[in-house]
Amino acid sequence: MTPLVYAWPGREALGAALVDALGGEPGRLELRRFPDGESYVRLASAPAGRHVVLACGLERPDDKCTGIYFAAATARELGARSVGLVAPYLAYMRQDARFRDGEAIASRAFARWLSSSVDWLVTLDPHLHRHASLDEVYSIPTRTVSSAAVIGRWIATNVPAALVVGPDAESAQWAGAIATAAGCPHVVLEKTRRGDRDVEVHLPALDRWRGRTPVLIDDIISTAQTMATAALGLRETGLASPLCIGVHALFADGAMSALDAAGVVRVVTCNSIVHATNGIDVLPAVATETAQMLAAFAASH
Questions:
Q1: CATH assignment of 148-280?
Q2: pLDDT, tens digit, for every residue of 179-214?
């Protein structure tokens, strides 16, 4: 039987991309809140005997996790062959160590919960820092999609004489891959983070790159302090006003204002999270990887 894809409200484009790639069928899903705030979930399309795919980004995860759990549990109870989650943004990856006594290591705790709720997971550019891969924390099969090639092609088409700028040493390999795909050079900054909104950025010598357009890249735009601080530094060196590209458009309060104040000429994000700045379509890449994941999972189970 064909896979059944349940898309969360607002993620219809993701659902449609998955249906096309999987040769699947869109499932009807009812979600609402009771007056007391509790979640109501109904799988209006019968999942019995089907591979079920839940299409739901995990930005603002506390609003969605109960619904994901109920949908996955219900699909299993009603006879689904498997239940997978396609979450282009994967939450709770930043807190990957205990810095103060008593802190939750959220990346591990969340991974244990999600691994017990679904059979497999596909995501895009998770924020891996102290974890080398998702396999270190997830006990289910996972696939990670990279946005580097898609972003590189976008830069090549839209930014003449670009200079890709990575925000920190951890971004060096990713920035290099984007620059290779874009056919342009890249540099990497040094970043020191003292707090959520307190970032210091050190720039390398950039004189040789005058005449190029800096393209600041980062996996997550949340407070935007890294990008804003780097943009100010780049302008002070005499380079052109930078363009900023982010994969996941979280945008905390004040983030866009900080970028505007830093003189950023434009902000473009991938559509892993739906946002007004979306301009780079990563959903086909996510859907293709999902088709490969589901085929491999079905073959082995």
A1: 3.40.50.2020
A2: 999 999 999 887 666 555 556 667 777 888 888 999
Per-residue b/e over 66-76, b at no fewer than 16 CB within 10 Å?
ebbbbbbebbb
Q: Which CATH class is domain 4-145+282-300?
A: alpha beta
Residue ranges, the chain, pLDDT below 50: none
